[in-house]
Amino acid sequence: MTLWLLNEFILDERPLKKKSIKGLSLTELQDFVESLGEKKYRAAQLFSWLYAKGAQSFSEMTDISREFRIVLEHSARMDNLELVRKSVSPTDGTTKFLFRLNDDLMIESVLIPPEESSPGAERRLTLCVSTQVGCPLDCKFCATGTMGFLRNLTAGEILDQLIQAQRHAQRRITNLVYMGMGEPMLNYEEVMKSVDILSDDRSLNIGARHITISTAGYADKIRQMADEDRKVKLALSLHSLDNEKRTQLMPITKKHSVDDLIEALEYYYRKTKRRPTFEYIPFDGFNDTKEDIRKFVKLSKRIPCKVNLIPFHSIAFTGISGLGASLRPTPKEKMERFAQALREANITVMVRSSSGEDIGAACGQLAVEEGRVKISQARVKSASDGRSA
Ligand code: SAH
What we know:
By secondary structure, this protein is an alpha/beta fold. It contains 13 helices and 14 strands. The strands form three sheets. The protein has a ten-stranded mixed beta sheet with strand order 3-4-5-6-9-10-11-12-13-14. α2 (26-35) crosses α3 (41-52), α5 (155-169) packs across α6 (188-199) and α7 (219-227) runs parallel beside α9.
């Protein structure tokens, strides 16, 4: 570090705009340290402290000189997510984290212990991360949709969910699912950047095969993932193979029809040879009929796939009306029959448990009450800013 720069930081009282560095790639960190007059190798140290060691402050970075740490204090921010609340399910140990972002908005992440019967269970610990504050897609069965959408998360905010959850759980997280609040494909660049950082062996080294990205259905992005040869697993929230019914459940189907999605997945499978997973919530009498099963079996002949059947988790707490209020979960025995019929067609089927339902942490239940308040405040503010502009 050149001394003049250090002096300038210490003597000059003007507030410098600090750069937010959690979420920067190694190359970006190299550019940053060079802009501060430091040698490139410092970036590798920073990378390791930020991600592999999960440092919460520059003072912890003990192999970095004191001088440079002072410069970092003045020129960089870490923007750690702040843990506001941690709720643990007394029934299954699922843990829900409520985090405050730098601008006071809130998001949730869920730590899911393995189901005991599953293979390798004792070693596996999965975190479900959010990719947006709220969600713009308005799927009729999902609580997050009722919050509306406020903003995309940065790569740093996405990956810090894992760093913070790991710190608080004091256990290594082995698997990551992008299935929390938001639609990952609407935040593609930051999502993929967070994947690249977390899967780097100089960082947390989470294998791409242990990372799943779940989408409500963006055909273009599915193709992009195939073209970029992304090694992560891909899941599509399918929920119906009938275009009209799917449109009722998931308005995004107007933009990307069931046929478009299937074509995109066929392309994905041809290019990557990786089987996608279909997520399917059977709703009683709506999408759990023999005809639905027949269509599913036909689809599996076109695209080798896995299926996750997810029980419908109640979102009545959101005060939802319309179709969302009339949907009911398929009874357990019928769900089993549905699963069995798919298995008989040689499809790998998992019937998901409802871990965390008692604490509002199960799939589709993430909707931050605090976030709801913030979002309505932000809407009022932006409306009034708009008026005064
Ligand atoms: N936007 C992405 C990821 C977030 S939703 C996507 O749609 O895939 C994560 C998973 O939870 C999806 O499969 C979604 O369909 C499912 N889900 C949403 N609401 C649910 C509910 N009330 N009960 C059960 N699963 C739900």
